[in-house]
Inverse folding.
């Protein structure tokens, strides 16, 4: 079993937004020492709760502080970029940090219409996404009419961040697929993954590969882990009310807030969806998920306000899955 981490550079109430980037670098150093396979960062634009809008820049900084762990994007959102520019950025990263760079690609647009307009793209259909992935790959494999430099930077593996049609795109292009969110609870998921493996078209010797992304947090008890999960779930619940995904808040501040009946129901559903609990609880939940998906790798995405508790959770998750 491989264990990796997706860190979204979450901002925290009462702290400078810039601190979130420093925290991401520090977390990468910590999980490398624990034996994690990859450390991925995210791309979000003008979101108060997330400081990372430029994965390539953050990965370059993390690469300087680490030595072994693979570094990548979870993901670069292709609707926001020209494929050549993406290929150039990640070739430069591969030149600076050889044999350590991954490129996860997604097709999500900005959270709001003004953001989408500022980024220059108001839609992103599956067919365009597939063409743009193929274009990026052409630049990285030196099979395109133009050559992304530096041409001798080495291989940059591609991954497709997918729900729904993205699984079909990954199979068509012969690429690994990364799945997460509500789609993991879909009754059709096992059938869709079987179809992915059957329809997979190998590219340069590639084989089907499934990575599942889960909000995983470990504490001494289920109740303590539930408290750890609360700030992230609360931020999502509040975003449904305010339209703004905000910084992580301390548990005490959340408990003191006025929570509507609708928000309370959403909060309970969100907490139930997280893989948060004691070591035995998390082990069981992950074993069930692996059995259902046949995944080869877990990409943990847990976050909480208390950074010490988060570091302890990362350590326990590593002990649980890596031995």
């Amino acid at each position: 079993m491989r264990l990796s981490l997706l860190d979204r550079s979450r901002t925290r109430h009462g702290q400078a937004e810039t601190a979130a980037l420093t925290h991401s670098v520090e977390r990468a150093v910590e999980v490398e020492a624990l034996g994690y396979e990859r450390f991925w960062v995210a791309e979000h634009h003008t979101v108060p709760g997330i400081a990372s809008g430029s994965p390539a820049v953050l990965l370059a900084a993390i690469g300087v502080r680490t030595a072994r762990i693979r570094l990548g994007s979870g993901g670069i959102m292709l609707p926001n970029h020209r494929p050549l520019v993406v290929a150039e950025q990640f070739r430069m990263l591969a030149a600076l940090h050889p044999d350590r760079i991954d490129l996860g690609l997604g097709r999500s647009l900005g959270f709001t219409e003004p953001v989408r307009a500022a980024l220059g793209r108001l839609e992103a259909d599956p067919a365009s996404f597939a063409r743009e992935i193929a274009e990026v790959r052409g630049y990285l494999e030196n099979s395109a009419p133009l050559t992304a430099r530096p041409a001798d930077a080495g291989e940059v593996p591609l991954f497709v961040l997918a729900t729904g049609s993205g699984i079909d795109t990954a199979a068509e292009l012969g690429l690994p697929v990364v799945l997460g969110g509500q789609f993991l609870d879909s009754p059709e998921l096992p059938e869709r993954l079987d179809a992915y493996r059957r329809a997979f078209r190998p590219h340069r010797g590639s084989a089907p590969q499934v990575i599942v992304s889960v909000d995983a947090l470990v504490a001494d008890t289920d109740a303590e882990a539930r408290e750890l999960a609360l700030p992230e779930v609360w931020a999502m619940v509040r975003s449904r009310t305010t339209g703004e995904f905000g910084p992580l808040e301390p548990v005490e501040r959340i408990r003191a807030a006025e929570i509507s009946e609708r928000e309370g129901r959403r909060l309970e559903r969100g907490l139930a969806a997280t893989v948060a609990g004691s070591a035995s609880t998390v082990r069981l939940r992950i074993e069930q998920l692996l059995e259902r998906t046949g995944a080869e790798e877990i990409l943990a995405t847990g976050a909480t306000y208390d950074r010490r508790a988060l570091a302890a959770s990362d350590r326990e998750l590593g002990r649980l899955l890596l031995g």
